UniProtKB/TrEMBL annotation:
Protein's UniProt name: AB hydrolase-1 domain-containing protein
Segments forming domain AB hydrolase-1: 216-325
Gene3D superfamilies per UniProt: alpha/beta hydrolase (3.40.50.1820)
Lineage top rank: taxon: Eukaryota
Pfam families referenced in this protein's UniProt entry, alphabetically: Abhydrolase_1 (PF00561)
Species this chain originates from: Cannabis sativa (Hemp)
InterPro entries reported in the protein's UniProt record: AB_hydrolase_1, AB_hydrolase_fold
Length: 495
């Protein structure tokens, strides 16, 4: 019997190796083809944007520019032998908040391209750098040289999204979506208002003066919406909880019914500012519990670090925390972990399409987001309404610009910051930390939650058997709502 068990393990191990080899081989072929397809779509969209919006639109396929910053708030940008000086608004954006994964995604095609033109570019860059130094010295500016993609420079200047009539109606202050984005009433309910705040679904006591009332902020994950909470947790809370807690579920910037500005880079600061402006400030929230899922966990940690004395409890579901090995480039490492360029599992394949391919992901948005009403109808027809409607709405109601930049600037761009955030939560915050993870989560592995536990020893980890990235809540909403109430009660007792 022992011999038979040993043989069985060897067979399973051999099958596992064969399966990995097949997955690797097929993935190499598929993603090499996708590299070429994305390059072709780059040309297609450049032409389409020009004819439809009367303006050439830059993309992140453009090469990086050699730039130099100065104390005056201006940077000198040099690319393709030409130089220009542009101004930055430090109150709106900082260049270090932009992930380099937006424009540096190594592939076989890009590596071959670099090898063929590297020598020609080296000679040009040497000459340009000499010219740049002369210009900076003549202007008496002491700056730092860095690399920045030309598309980022254009977005900083407000060129993407443009100021033409196709994108802005200056008389009525109504922003018109790009041609590849949906313009239905649900998706553009924000365009007719000049109020720059997020869509917030709130429930609970209306008075903000009652001292016994507490606040709970719910933050959804990537390509989702506030309905992830309002359709699951909110209806299953007890009457006692509904009378004691003010519940705030937001649609993040660029998703659901919240604003989707075409000139935004959707950085961490922009997301946090909008949360504060939409929930904390107008509702006079001084202390609060946080419940966050997936990408929302990063925003939750950043918010907790920014308001360390205000957080009463921190509940994280499937936090995407990948400790970066020494010597690895943080943003690139996390991008490979989240989007491994593999055809299996399917959810990993989908993440790879969304993360590695700017133009393929835009095409997917064009097909399913712009035509989401039709797609929703077909999905319901095929599945006989077995899929939850609110999940479809959360998945479809965003723009490519919002999804693309949020994915890179939040998940990848904060890779080097999460260690520091968790350290602050461990050392400066006294609140309880609870982490939930689905055992079968193929997008964010369970090890991520154990990594959080290793960083914050007091964190309570609960792995839910036979649940994945979504069913950790959907399908067990009653149990989860009960668990949340217990967390809030315990936290309130301690304070």
């Amino acid at each position: 019997m022992v011999l038979g068990m040993g043989m069985g393990r060897k067979v399973r191990f051999a099958m596992l190796l064969i399966g990995r080899a097949i997955n690797d081989s097929v993935s190499f072929v598929v993603f090499t083809i996708l590299d070429l397809v994305d390059l072709f779509l780059c040309l297609v969209y450049r032409v389409a944007d020009f004819f439809i919006e009367a303006e050439w639109k830059s993309c992140y396929c453009s090469s990086s520019s050699s730039s130099s910053s100065s104390n005056s708030g201006k940077i000198l940008v040099s690319e393709h032998g030409e130089s220009k000086i542009v101004s930055l608004s430090s109150t709106k954006l900082r260049l270090e908040e932009i992930s380099d994964t937006l424009y540096r995604r190594p592939s076989l095609l890009t590596e071959v391209s670099k090898l063929t033109i590297n020598e020609l570019k080296r000679l040009k860059l040497d000459a340009n750098n000499n010219n740049n130094n002369n210009v900076i010295n003549n202007n008496n500016n002491k700056g730092t040289t860095f690399m920045v993609n030309s598309t980022i420079v254009e977005m900083l200047q407000g060129k993407i999204g443009g100021n033409n009539n196709h994108n802005h109606n200056l008389n009525s202050h109504v922003r018109i979506p790009r041609w590849s984005d949906c313009d239905c009433k649900f998706c553009t309910c924000w365009t007719s208002s000049t109020k720059e705040t997020l869509y917030v679904k709130s429930e609970g006591p209306k008075s903000d003066l009652a001292e016994e009332n507490e606040n709970v902020l719910f933050i959804h994950g990537f390509i989702s919406s506030s309905a992830f909470w309002t359709e699951t947790v909110f209806p299953n809370l007890s009457n006692e909880a509904k009378t004691k807690y003010r519940l705030f579920a937001i649609d993040l910037l660029g998703f659901g019914r919240s604003p989707k500005p075409s000139d935004s880079l959707y950085t961490l600061r922009e997301h946090l500012d909008m949360i504060e402006r939409s929930v904390l400030e107008p509702n006079k929230v001084k202390s609060f519990h946080i419940v966050a899922h997936s990408l929302g966990c990063i925003l939750a940690l950043a918010l907790a670090v920014k308001h360390p004395g205000s957080v009463k409890s921190l509940t994280l579901l499937a936090p995407p925390y990948f400790p970066v090995p020494k010597g690895e480039h943080a943003t690139q490492y996390v991008m490979r972990r989240v989007a491994p360029r593999r055809v299996w599992p399917l959810i990993g394949f989908g993440a790879s399409l969304a993360c590695w391919y700017e133009h393929i992901s835009r095409t997917i948005c064009l097909v399913i987001c712009k035509n989401h009403r039709l797609v929703e109808f077909l999905v319901k027809l095929i599945t006989r309404n077995r899929l939850r409607t609110f999940l479809l709405e959360g998945f479809f109601c965003h723009t490519h610009n919002a999804a693309w930049h949020t994915l890179h600037n939040i998940i990848c761009g904060t890779a080097a910051k999460l260690d520091a955030y968790l350290t602050v939560v461990r050392d400066r915050l006294s609140c309880d930390v609870h982490v939930f993870h689905g055992e079968d989560d193929e997008l964010i592995p369970v090890e991520c939650s154990h990594n959080v536990k290793a960083k914050i020893p007091r964190a309570h980890i609960k792995v839910i058997n036979k649940k994945d990235h979504i069913t950790i809540v959907v399908g067990r909403q009653k149990a989860f709502a009960s668990e949340l109430e217990q967390i809030w009660r315990n936290s309130s007792t301690k304070t």
